[in-house]
């Protein structure tokens, strides 16, 4: 592996010398002489001894006397050259012939010294040799360092995730790192000599001029410049969108100083970072910020933006534009009964059909649950707008086939025009919304154009109304349960389901504060649907837990009963949770009954056939005629809590309760009292033969968890 430059320190290496000399006199004096100049001195008195020592370890310098007793000094010399070529040999000889000196030098001696020599001469030669040695070492060291640093730089450049390049002054590649292969599919060799234009996306060429082959340096040079590069023709890599990658470029000019001190431009240097991934992520995020992910349609933010532009345009041209508010009728029911997956598919199919009704220039947006907005940027008159509304209503007549379900969808449309009904984005949307509610009020599956009169009846309630709609979408409703107790046994025989709104800021809101508005705005439909589903599910859960069988009572609003498919819907809900008709009871008030008595008789009879029992809620406060009551399949009368409350202070209280009790008996109806708060009230009810009671005395309405505990306690 690669070390670091710091590892290659230049140590001044110690110098060792081997003196080969058979004359002891010389040996000793030489040793003494050289001691200050070399670090280590070893001696040998024969050729063999010397070769043995060299074999055992290396020496930097050998001082060799040619006249050895056992072998020729030249042979020693030759062997040293052969085996230890790094070792510098200084030959010392008594032989005065020049041939001998030449021979020694030819064999590779570093220097030659003739005996007898002056001590300075020897010292000079040895010092020269050690110096040469140092130089040699130093040289080798720098060589290594250079190789090392080049390797390091190449490694850094090639392992960079970015494309690094240099261009000549004409804009042709002179260097490209290996990242070009990975990013563009172009290996360095094939790019060298090509003009950078060849890799720049055709549409970006103009922008790329003077940036890729940047001449400037410092702060004015190209920084973080976005640009698209093409994939190299023979690229086998994954091409990006239209075969391009987006890069972020930093580039600058390269200069050198000439001999006469001038700055000369020699080309450009650049680093291009592949940011395609980031670009794609950015595009997705932007898309998500302005679109509804389920249908791919614009969302409210994009819609508002488009309306803003259209208003500006209409203002200039003096034309009108229209904003339509679309709300699917009973969509919640589909979601609750068939599940969210089917609901989602239905929404997608509906949005496609809606889109098909419109022109290219119109905007269709989905702004939540089952609500859509439409912008018609140019309309001639109210008449045109109505025509489109009719077209949309008609387009939804045909059923949708989602998986195996044949689903019928209707919607209500409200429209507001610029400038007649408002001149700002929010006003137009709000007025279209108000008009839509009127359409719903008038019986759904229709449209309504905004008029100022509509506003007066609506704006006060709009807050609660929009709040309620959000509550439905966000699941802020809860069902609480209040036990109904058999007066004789004291056992829980039923539970009344009472809805509550868990408001994120206001806390738990009782039904009295929103049911009336919900009924008014048509929202009671989806709310009641949700309550019925929740209650059926709860009955199913308790049944599966093996708790004692009880009847769950649901309060029914007139709106629900008006639905033509109410009985089917009700029985479907029971079936969905495998419930018996006797497990769910319905409570209707007298006023509800009186709204459409004939219709009620029909529907209640059908329900009765399913085993579903009906009780008249708040009995005694309305004007139900006994003759009608007799025609209805009713099972229970529920005495209004005001009579129970009045039992003690009001002298007529007991007589009213007495009367109702007598009537119930004569009609063979069950009698249940609500609002029982004291033992005294309960005692009185026992005396008149009341069957069951409900009230704070036994328990307040509680959430499903506590209701479960109450039922479990009864088991033991
Ligand atoms: P209700 O059907 O007559 O329900 C009985 C009301 O009396 C409940 O009020 C209950 O909390 C209250 N109550 C029970 N015991 C006592 C007691 O001992 N003393 C007193 N003073 N009050 C007692 P809540 O829950 O506020 O409901 C009010 C009304 O809202 C209900 O009257 C019912 O007409 C309506 N409502 C509740 N849930 C629904 C629903 O899911 N759908 C429809 N359409 N209406 C509902
Ligand atoms: Mg009730
Ligand atoms: Mg009641």
Name its key features.
single chain, 716 residues, alpha/beta, Rossmann fold, Beta-Lactamase, Alpha-Beta Plaits, 8-stranded mixed barrel, 27 helices, 26 strands, 23% strand, disordered N terminus, binds ligand C2E, binds magnesium ion
Topology (elements, then pairings):
Layout (H helix, E strand, L loop, with lengths): L15 E5 L3 H11 L5 E5 L2 H10 L4 E5 L7 H11 L4 E6 L4 H9 L4 E4 L4 H41 L3 E5 L5 E4 L2 H6 L3 H4 L13 H4 L13 E9 L13 E14 L5 E12 L1 H15 L9 H18 L2 E9 L2 H8 L1 H17 L6 E6 L2 E9 L2 H14 L4 E3 L2 E3 L3 E8 L6 H17 L5 E3 L2 H7 L3 H13 L2 E10 L5 E12 L3 E3 L5 H7 L2 H21 L6 E5 L2 H5 L3 H11 L7 E6 H6 L1 H13 L4 E6 L6 H6 L4 E4 L1 H5 L7 H14 L3 E5 L4 H9 L4 E3 L9 H12 L1
Parallel strand pairs: 1-2, 1-3, 3-4, 4-5, 16-17, 19-21, 21-22, 22-23, 23-24, 24-25, 25-26
Antiparallel strand pairs: 6-7, 6-10, 8-9, 9-10, 11-13, 11-16, 12-13, 14-15, 18-19, 18-26, 19-20
The protein binds ligand C2E and magnesium ion (MG) (2 copies).
The site of ligand C2E has 23 residues, from β19, α18 and β23.
Number of E-state strands = 26
Shape: elongated
Quote the distance from N terminus to C terminus.
Answer: 78 Å
Please give the radius of gyration in angstroms: 50 Å
CATH architecture of the largest domain: Alpha-Beta Barrel
Physical arrangement of strands within the biggest beta sheet: 18-19-21-22-23-24-25-26
Q: Give the number of domains.
A: 4
Question: What number is the mean pLDDT?
Answer: 87
Weakly predicted, low-confidence segments: 1-10, 235-241
Structural class: alpha/beta
Small molecules (ligands, ions, cofactors) in the structure = ligand C2E, magnesium ion
Number of helices: 27
CATH superfamily of the largest domain, by name, is EAL domain
**Helical percent range?**
40-55%
What percentage of the residues does DSSP assign to strands (E)? Answer: 15-25%
The CATH topology of the largest domain corresponds to TIM Barrel
- CATH class categorisation of the largest domain: Alpha Beta
> Main beta sheet: strand number and arrangement?
8 strands, mixed, barrel
């Amino acid at each position: 592996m690669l070390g670091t430059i710091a590892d290659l320190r230049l140590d001044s290496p110690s110098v060792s010398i081997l003196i080969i000399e058979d004359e002891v006199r010389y040996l000793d004096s030489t040793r003494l002489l050289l001691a200050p100049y070399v670090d280590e001195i070893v001696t040998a008195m024969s050729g063999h001894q010397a070769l043995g020592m060299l074999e055992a370890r290396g020496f930097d310098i050998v001082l060799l006397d040619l006249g050895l007793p056992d072998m020729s000094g030249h042979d020693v010399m030759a062997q040293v050259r052969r085996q230890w070529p790094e070792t510098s040999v200084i030959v010392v000889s008594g032989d005065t012939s020049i041939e001998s000196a030449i021979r020694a030098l030819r064999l590779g001696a570093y220097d030659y010294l003739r005996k007898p020599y002056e001590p300075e001469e020897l010292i000079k030669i040895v010092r020269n040799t050690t110096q040469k040695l140092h130089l040699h070492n130093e040289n080798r060291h720098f060589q290594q360092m250079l190789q090392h640093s080049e390797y390091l730089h190449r490694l850094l450049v090639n392992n960079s995730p970015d494309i690094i390049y240099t261009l000549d002054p004409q804009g042709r590649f002179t260097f490209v790192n290996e990242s070009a292969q990975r990013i563009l599919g172009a290996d360095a060799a094939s790019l060298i000599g090509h003009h950078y234009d060849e890799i720049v996306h055709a549409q970006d060429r103009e922008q790329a001029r003077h940036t890729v082959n940047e001449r400037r340096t410092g702060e004015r040079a190209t920084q973080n410049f976005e640009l698209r590069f093409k994939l190299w023709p023979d690229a086998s890599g994954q091409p990006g969108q239209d075969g391009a990658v987006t890069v972020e470029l930093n580039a600058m000019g390269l200069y050198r100083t000439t001999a006469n001190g001038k700055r000369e431009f020699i080309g450009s240097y650049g680093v291009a970072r592949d940011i395609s991934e980031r670009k794609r992520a950015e595009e997705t995020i932007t898309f998500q910020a302005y679109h509804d992910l389920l249908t791919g349609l614009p969302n409210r933010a994009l819609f508002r933006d488009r309306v803003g532009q259209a208003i500006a345009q209409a203002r200039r041209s003096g034309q009108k534009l229209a904003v339509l508010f679309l709300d699917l009728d009973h969509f919640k029911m589909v979601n609750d009964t068939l599940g969210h997956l089917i609901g989602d598919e239905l929404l997608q199919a509906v949005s496609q059909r809606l889109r098909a009704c419109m022109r290219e220039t119109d905007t269709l947006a989905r702004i939540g649950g089952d609500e859509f907005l439409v912008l018609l940027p140019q309309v001639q008159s109210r008449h045109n707008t109505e025509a489109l509304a009719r077209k949309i209503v008609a387009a939804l007549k045909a059923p949708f086939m989602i998986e195996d379900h044949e689903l019928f969808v209707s919607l209500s449309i409200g429209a507001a025009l610029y400038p007649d009904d408002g001149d700002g984005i929010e006003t137009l949307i709000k007025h279209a919304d108000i008009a839509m509610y009127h359409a719903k009020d008038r019986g759904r599956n229709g449209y309504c154009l905004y008029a100022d009169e509509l506003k007066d009846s609506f704006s006060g309630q709009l807050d609660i109304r929009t709040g309620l709609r959000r509550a439905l979408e966000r699941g802020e409703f809860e069902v609480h349960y209040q036990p109904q107790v058999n007066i004789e046994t004291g056992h829980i025989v039923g539970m009344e389901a009472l809805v509550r709104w868990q408001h994120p800021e206001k806390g738990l809101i009782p039904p009295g504060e929103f049911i009336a508005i919900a009924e008014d705005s048509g929202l009671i439909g989806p709310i009641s649907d949700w309550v019925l589903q929740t209650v059926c599910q709860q009955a199913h859960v308790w049944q599966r837990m093996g708790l004692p069988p009880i009847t769950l009572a649901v309060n029914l609003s007139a709106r629900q009963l008006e639905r033509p498919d109410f009985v089917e819907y009700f029985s479907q809900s029971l079936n969905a949770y495998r419930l018996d008709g006797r497990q769910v009871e319905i409570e209707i008030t007298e006023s509800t009954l009186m709204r459409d008595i004939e219709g009620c008789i029909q529907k209640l009879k059908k329900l009765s056939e399913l085993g579903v029992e009906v009780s008249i809620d708040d009995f005694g406060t309305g004007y139900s005629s006994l003759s009608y009551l007799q025609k209805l399949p009713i099972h229970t009368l529920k005495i209004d809590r005001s009579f129970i409350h009045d039992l003690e202070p009001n002298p007529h209280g007991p007589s009213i309760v007495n009367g109702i009790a007598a009537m119930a008996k004569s009609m063979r109806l069950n009698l249940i009292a609500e609002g029982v708060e004291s033992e005294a009230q309960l005692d009185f009810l026992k005396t008149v033969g009341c069957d069951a009671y409900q009230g704070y005395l036994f328990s307040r309405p509680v959430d499903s968890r506590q209701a479960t505990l109450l039922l479990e306690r009864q088991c033991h």
